[in-house]
Amino acid sequence: MGWGSALLVLGLLLFVLPGKAAAFGAGNIPSIAQVEGHNWRHGDIEDMLKTVAFLHGKKWTTMMIGRVYFGNWLRDYSQAVDVGSLKGINAATIRIIVWVLSFMANGYATEEFEVTEERLGAYRPEEHIDNPLGYADGQDARQFDPRLRGPVDPRELEIDPRTGMKNYIANESGGWATSAGYLRWSFARSIHFGRVYTNGASGTSGKEADLCEALRCLGQALHCMEDFSAHSNYCELALVELGFRNVFPHCGSATQIHLNGRTVYPLVTGTFGAVDFLHSVLGEANDHFTQSEVDEIDIALKNAEQANKSTSGQRGFFGGTGSGGSDFVSLLGQLPGVGDGFASQARNLKAMSEAQEQENTRSAGNVNVVPGMSPNFDPVRVSGQIYPILEFRDKIVRSINNMISKIPGLESLLERISETLTAFILGLLAPFIRPIISQVSKALKEGSAGLIETSANQQLEPWTNPRCDNPTHSMLSKDHFTNILNSCAGRVAATVLQYVVP
Ligand SMILES: *[C@@H]1O[C@H](CO)[C@@H](O)[C@H](O)[C@H]1NC(C)=O
Ligand SMILES: *[C@@H]1O[C@H](CO)[C@@H](O)[C@H](O)[C@H]1NC(C)=O
User: Fold this and answer.
1) What pLDDT is stored for residue 398 in this prediction?
2) Most CB within 10 Å of its CB: which of 64, 76, 280, 408?
3) CB neighbour list of residue 125: distance below 8 Å, 6 or more residues apart
4) In terms of C-beta density within 10 A (0-12 exposed, 13-18 middle, 19 or more buried), how is residue 78 classed?
5) Mutational test site, ligand 1, from 8, 173, 259, max ligand atoms within 8 Å of CB
6) What is the rounded distance in angstroms from the CA atom of residue 479 to the CA atom of residue 476?
7) Is pLDDT above 90 for 451?
8) How many whole angstroms from 309 Cα to the centroid of ligand 2?
9) What is the pLDDT of residue 444?
10) How far, in Å, CA of 109 to CA of 397, rounded?
11) In whole angstroms, how large is the CA radius of gyration of the chain?
């Protein structure tokens, strides 16, 4: 693919944006998170947005950036809701796990940051520009969740003679889901809510919730755009075009097409099969919804429980006596105005959590009942139980953030509260979440065993079959630092975004 068609692609991306996203001002865009590694995600991206104009030419605040990133982040984790995992665990349970992960990644977990089943959605290939070939092994995935996609139409996998890209990317004449369609939908929704916020009819404008929804939709659209360079062979094709003839285009040698009078390889993205699911979602030192990430929460929860139990005073806690838990409660009680209310809420939540812990211990005696996963395990009930904990925590953080600037002299108290808050909250969550985590890890590990062997051959097909234009996601994607084109794809994504946002 030449720069001519690169421009075409760019033009196409611009074309799918209705009415221009003027609502969000000019310049750079957050999070090429998908493309870059973990460190990048939390560092540079946020700095990048701060250099750019927000609504009415204001600056992006950390909170606004967080809201955009939340929308972006959710797309990654919607991959956990797919056929493979739904066979073992129901969607409501997956949502709880993702909710806790989100709390740890994004810092908030309620209101606009609540991971609802609706916001989480399910795995849809077009949201990541994934090649749907082989999706759900030919089964109709909608039997597991009506939001999943149906069987693949072979025409989706053909190359669009107009753009040289696979039809599922941006050919909208066939009635199948396309990434271009998803982008248009997300940006339109973002712009709609942004306009309601800025110019809504009398009484409807200025609502914070509308702004948050606009930012979340912006984030999910950006996720898809960032995947364009990260999940396709765009970088390879551009390199070939620049004269690096030895770059492998991830398509068989006989797949070249005629496009605008030139002979080029088609632009394709990777298929996302069982092995890729493992590669991307289950771990293998990967930065998505990894096994190890689930394990990490488990460890964090365990530590929080231990810390509560050990009575030796920890780093400079007030008084230095009693358990970490009650120290925290007494710290809270010192907050001016709101302290007493917070402290009594904390005590109530703690009592609730301890009751659950005892229930777990009781059922642990019975080997037939996995605690929390007994036949009468009800994810909806658990969500109801953890919501007040997360809500309590968000309330404290929001009021601390308000106080920091307004009431001088409280810095050291607020700092100590923030330091211990997470441990306290994790300790409260532990009895509810840990049983689920152990069950989910087991289901995921069982589900993945034996899959690697069977589809390993597919991974090498573009090398062995000259007619193959369906490379796999694992071979093609540049999501991870281990891929040499990772930073290249990241910079392409950033540049594309700079063109798109104004
Ligand atoms: C879209 O896909 C169909 C079916 O493969 C194809 O006939 C058509 O040429 C493609 N391109 C456009 C612009 O419709
Ligand atoms: C927290 O500490 C208290 C008092 O030391 C103890 O009774 C309780 O079981 C602990 N709670 C948890 C969740 O570990």
Assistant:
1) 84
2) 280
3) 131, 132, 135, 149, 168, 177, 272
4) buried
5) 173
6) 9
7) no
8) 5
9) 60
10) 11
11) 25
Ligand 2 close to Cβ of residue 305 (< 6 A): yes
Per residue in 312-365, pLDDT (tens digit) is 433 333 333 334 456 788 888 888 777 788 888 888 888 888 888 888 777 655
Q: What CA–CA distance (Å, rounded) separates 304 from 306?
A: 5
- Partners of 262 in the β-ladder: 259
Domain span at 444: 3-500
Amino acid at 360: N
> How many angstroms is it from 159 CA to the middle of ligand 1?
8
Flag the least confident range among 149-158, 164-173, 217-226, 331-340. Answer: 331-340
Query: What percent of the chain has a predicted confidence (pLDDT) above 70?
Result: 68
Distance 266 CA to ligand 1 centre (A): 14
Both tokens assigned to 101: 């992960």
Helix (H), strand (E) counts: the chain: 21, 2
Return the H-helix or E-strand segment holding 463. helix 461-464
**CB of 85 closer than 6 A to ligand 2?**
no
d(CA 412, CA 173) in angstroms, rounded, equals 62
DSSP 47: H
Q: Which ligand is nearest to the CA of 423?
A: 2
* Range from 81-95, 178-192, 221-235 carrying the lowest mean pLDDT: 81-95
The CB of 298 under 6 Å from ligand 2? The reply is no
- Ligand showing the shortest atom-to-Cα distance for residue 434: 2
Q: pLDDT of 134-161, one tens digit each?
A: 888 778 889 888 999 888 898 999 999 9
Residue nearest to atom 12 of ligand 2 (CA): 305
Q: How confident is the model at residue 127 (pLDDT cuts 50, 70, 90)?
A: very high
Q: What pLDDT, on the 0 to 100 scale, is given for residue 283? A: 38
How confident is the model at residue 304, as a pLDDT? 67
Q: Put residue 435 in one of left, alpha, beta given phi > 0 → left and psi -120 to 50 → alpha.
A: alpha
Q: Count CB atoms within 10 A of the CB of residue 171.
A: 20
**If you average pLDDT over every residue of the chain, what do you get?**
73
Residue to mutate, 9, 157, 158, 257, ligand 1, most ligand atoms under 8 Å from C-beta: 158
Å from CA of 176 to ligand 1 middle: 11
Question: How many structural domains are present in the chain?
Answer: 1
**Residue 249: half-sphere exposure toward Cβ, Cα within 13 Å:** 27
- Whether 182 has a pLDDT exceeding 90, the answer reads yes
* Predicted local confidence at residue 170, as pLDDT: 92
Residue written as token pair 């040289």 = 164
Q: 94 to each of 88, 102, 124, 181, 300, how far by Cα in Å? A: 10, 12, 16, 27, 19
CA distances 56 to 199, 202, 259, 340, 343, Å, are 12, 19, 43, 40, 40
- 167 C-alpha vs ligand 1 centroid, how far in Å? 7
Closest atom of ligand 1 to 171 CA is 1
